[in-house]
Input
Amino acid sequence: MSDRSPGCDRRISRQRRLSWCEPFSGEYDEEALKNVIRKMRLLSFPNSGSITPRSESEPESETPSNPSPLSALPDCTALLSDELLVKVFERISERKQLLSNSLVCKRWCSLCGRLIESIRLLDWEFLESGRLAYRFPNLVDVNILPASIRFERNSGILLSTESFGVYLNSSVLENDGSFVRKLDILPSERIDGGVRILSEGCKNLRKISLMNVGEEGLTFLATECEMLQEMELHNCGDFALRGIHRFQNLQILKLVGRLSGVYASIVSDIGMTILAQGCRRLLKLELMGCEGSFDGIKAIGMCCEMLAELTICSHRMEGGWLSALSYCKNLKILRIKLCKYIDDNPGLDEHLRSCPMLEELHLSRCQLRFKHGVRSLFLVCRAITGLVVEDCWGLDNGA
Output
């Protein structure tokens, strides 16, 4: 039996609790206490968001000077495999958040880069250095049009088109009516070199937009990227299209010969014939600012037998090209946009044969004041079941 009474035990317990609040006057290990304080600071760092400054009386530790608390924290994601982290990143719907995650570390930067499939290039040196293909190895859609033009980065004048936008300097009015000088567009040799680097690093390309590319660049692209299906070409001449015959799976093509106020190149019947003989599997074709005549459209209709949709935009063709549309046997949709005239000399009505499979005709922002050309267009498209007229001028009951 204990000699102490219950009341005595309560008094002793109370004295022990009170003694913790009093200054500790006994002997203790000073270095061990400081190590405990450091560990408490590291554990409280993620919650507080700040680091408690070290007092002047604390001695320097034997570890490297001023170690970052973040480096002492364990990397929990290191236990996850790359495949698992990629699956987690795939669930992020916002692209901005995906780009923010790529700034965490080099590993996350590499993994997030695998998920980027479409990019618009602004810096040509980023492509030439090889960092584009290394940073984004799984690209499917690449637009290098903005990087193909030298522009003022600090300018407040923005030239925006349907395909690209560039910043201009204050001397734009001195360019003889053109907003972009020829010297501002990268030469074909440099464009071909960049296309070669891109095609060797990104072999899974499905769509690409190019400017001022030469025959050599198109040949590299066709050899390395066999699955390319859609392409947009700007400022390319007739003979640059000789490299296009190597594309075996090209189905959609937009060819821009002249863009008013920006640049001017010549795509004539020669280029259309080369195009028709090289791209026999085309399903959609858009000719913007192209020259030509009956012969060029006829070559496209006879060679591209699978062509189902044809777009003529801002054309500069000679009279009589309308009658060549009858050679497009499987054409179903015809779009005519931004044309000042349809056909200034379509010929006699007896020579205008209709397209047998044509179903829809779309007229957008065209001038229809020349009744003879408009009437010839309707004769060629007499078998259509749908007509769309949008923002056109000059259409009246007589037409």
User: Anything to note?
Assistant: The chain has a mean pLDDT of 79. Residues 30-48 form the longest helix (19 residues). The two ends are 123 Å apart (CA to CA). The chain is about 30% helix and 15% strand.
